[in-house]
Amino acid sequence: MKVDLAIVVPCYNEEEVLNETTRQLTAVLADLEVAGKIKAGKIVYVDDGSRDRTWELICSFARQDGRVCGLKLAHNAGHQRALWAGMEWAAGHAEAAVSIDADLQDDVQAIGEMVDAWRGGADVVYGVRQERKTDTFFKKHTAQAFYRLMNALGGEVVYNHADFRLMDKRALQALLAYPERNLFLRGMVASLGFRTAKVYYDRKERMAGESKYPLGKMVSFALDGITSFSVRPLRYIAMLGFLFILIAVVAIIYGVVVYCQGNTIPGWTSLLVSVWFIGGSILLALGIIGEYVGKIYKEVKRRPHYFVAEEAGMD
Ligand code: UDP
Ligand code: MG
Q1: Whether residue 85 is found in the same domain as residue 134
Q2: Residue 267: which domain range?
């Protein structure tokens, strides 16, 4: 089975949205086919170890409609790995793949524009959020702070672009050649190069169900992003250490001078404060180094990203 365009949709406990998602995405594919922009398209649902009826729904859609197929991962591997699984399938079966979340927060109409940009010669087309009217104040500001921090630390990310993008076969194959276990796809894709284009859209509210990215997961994803793409935090630690040594040298000189003058100072407060401060800095430094050591540990284990437990609609 060969198709022009695969739409890869990771799903984790998405029974509430899948009906509507399937309806809208099949309509998009049908429109593209009618308009002659693609010959055949496919929706690839990747069930990321859901515990609700997600997989049953995917199987029934696959039976009803030849445009739908699905992979069921054996375990909840995480959003990025679910995407990876779908893209691996797409690299073997499609000319290009669009990745989009199951909750349709990203505008499905932008897929048409992405296909146009791809046909116009782009290998990677980024979906970029124009505004975040519907995001909560908190989500909007934490997300933007993240993009800024990431860029300041030297990790390449496209501002306001998440995982809604089109990649053609060439870009997919290049991405799949990355051997690392820690997946931070938006950063990895940005570092591929090739010809890129951007398509702008408005981000909507989740159709139904709850976010599968609670604060804890979001923070750990952001940390992963930074530590997978930048070693600058380590360098900042060294710089901080250097600064402290300078301060210490000044303090020693000052201490000796004061001692020679015969003014003994009580100094209890300053001592107490510096002990805490230095202790805290050392722990922070160790924590950051530990984060990288943990990454190395994960990488050397070279575990597979996922296992496929079942398939639907694959002929
Ligand atoms: N998702 C997944 N595995 C997970 C968590 C999320 O496949 O462990 C999927 C989820 O079903 C959705 C997408 O990743 O299609 C993005 O999740 P969500 O919309 O909950 O994140 P948010 O938009 O709130 O950041
Ligand atoms: Mg969402």
Answers
A1: yes
A2: 232-301
31 Cα–ligand 1 center, Å: 26
Q: Global pTM?
A: 0.84
Return the ∠ at Cα 248 (arms to 243 and 252), rounded to 5°: 155
pLDDT at 236: 84
If asked whether residues 129 and 80 sit together in one domain, one would say yes
Q: How many structural domains compose the chain?
A: 2
Band (pLDDT 50/70/90 cuts) for residue 119 is very high
> Where residue 130 sits, what CATH number does that domain have?
3.90.550.10
Q: Is the CB of 85 under 6 A from ligand 1?
A: no
Tell me which residues have their CB within 5 A of the ion that is ligand 2: 101, 103, 105
Please tell me whether residues 190 and 242 are part of one structural domain: no
pLDDT at 268: 67
Ligand 1 pocket check for 165: Cβ under 6 Å: no
Q: Are residues 294 and 195 in the same domain?
A: no
Q: What is the pLDDT of residue 107?
A: 92
Quick one: 164 and 275 in the same domain? Answer: no
Residues 39, 53: one domain?
yes
Please provide the average confidence, as pLDDT, over all residues in the chain: 88
